[in-house]
Design a protein that fits this description.
Elements: E1 2-3, E2 10-16, E3 19-24, E4 27-32, E5 52-56, E6 62-66, E7 73-77, E8 80-84, H1 99-111, E9 117-121, H2 127-134, E10 138-143, H3 146-158, E11 166-170, H4 173-183, E12 189-192, E13 197-199, E14 205-207, H5 208-220, E15 229-234, H6 241-256, E16 259-269, E17 274-285
Parallel strand pairs: 1-16, 4-5, 9-10, 9-12, 10-11, 12-15
Antiparallel strand pairs: 2-3, 3-4, 5-6, 7-8, 13-14, 15-17, 16-17
Length: 286
């Protein structure tokens, strides 16, 4: 398991009964997590006085019950800064476990000794984008949601990267990749964080089990002659990290050699000092 344990502004306080108790900067949030299938001791007092609690609705969806929580606030990770905005579907605009991947590829980029061009697909609010840019890469950031791309731009500005070579694209990721192939564009590194299920801006349907192999196959055509890495993230519990590694082996390692690895991402709960699973990643790199 790759554990994101270098945070100061984020803390997984406890996990029990299908919920996380988390500190995001100065504020404590309580929200659902389907992977937390156990019941803990719950001695942590902050379970009962969180600044906001996400409650599911019997009709589907849900919403935040807020005390003195602002609409948005900022937190940092090392030299990166992010704006947090609690959203309608329990999210905050940031996945803290991804810091384990940010550290991994940032070191690859900074040690490469050359200018690395990164394609970040399903790029959300740009955690990976700003991490790669701060490490010295140029980044093409692609997401179908206009609001998420706008928040990614905010995060870049907060991180002192307003003039960094980042290109923001609001588009369906597969269609963008197909156009890049026709244009003959190449990238030294590719990051993708596809949803389990989603729709593009024109109603395109994405289901990860049916589509990820095809997309990786297309993306492999965009790799430069000297690619640095390829990273796939998944939050689909039924999709094994080894399945993603196998795809990378077929589509990328078979041509370029290099190394493959896959595993779960995790966060350590301070109440128990144990780690909870938070998705999975597969990595290829030279």
């Amino acid at each position: 398991m790759w554990i994101a344990d270098n945070w100061e502004d984020y803390e997984l306080i406890d996990a029990s009964g299908g919920e996380r108790l988390e500190r995001w900067g100065a504020y404590v949030l309580r929200r659902p997590d389907p992977q937390i299938i156990w019941n803990g001791v719950n001695k942590e007092k902050r379970w009962n006085n969180a600044d906001a609690i996400y409650k599911r609705s019997s009709k589907g969806g849900g919403g935040w019950i807020k005390n003195e929580l602002p609409e948005s606030w900022n937190i940092g990770y090392k030299n990166l800064k992010f704006v947090l905005k609690p959203m309608g579907f329990k999210h905050t605009g940031l996945f803290p476990e991804q810091a384990a991947n940010w550290d991994w590829f940032s070191e690859l980029i900074s040690k490469s000794g050359r200018k690395i061009k990164v394609l970040n697909l399903f790029a959300y609010t740009g955690g990976a984008t700003v991490a790669a840019a701060l490490a010295g890469a140029s980044v093409v950031h692609v997401d179908a949601a206009k609001g998420m791309v706008a928040q990614a731009k905010e995060n870049a500005v907060l991180s002192g990267l307003s003039d960094a070579p980042i290109r923001y694209i609001v588009d369906d990721c597969k269609k963008f990749v197909e156009r890049e192939i026709r244009r003959g564009n190449k990238y030294d590194a590719i990051i993708m964080d596809p949803p389990s299920y989603g729709r593009g801006p024109s109603g395109e349907i994405w289901k990860i089990e049916d589509s990820v192999d095809e997309l990786v196959t297309l993306c492999a055509k965009l790799l430069s002659d000297e690619p640095l890495f390829f990273l796939i993230n998944s939050y689909t519990t039924g999709l094994s990290p080894m399945a993603m590694q196998y795809i990378l082996g077929l589509r990328v390692a078979s041509k370029y050699g290099g190394r493959l690895e896959a595993g779960e991402l995790g966060l350590r709960a301070t109440a128990t000092n144990m780690c909870i699973p938070c998705g999975a990643s597969a990595r290829w790199y030279l």
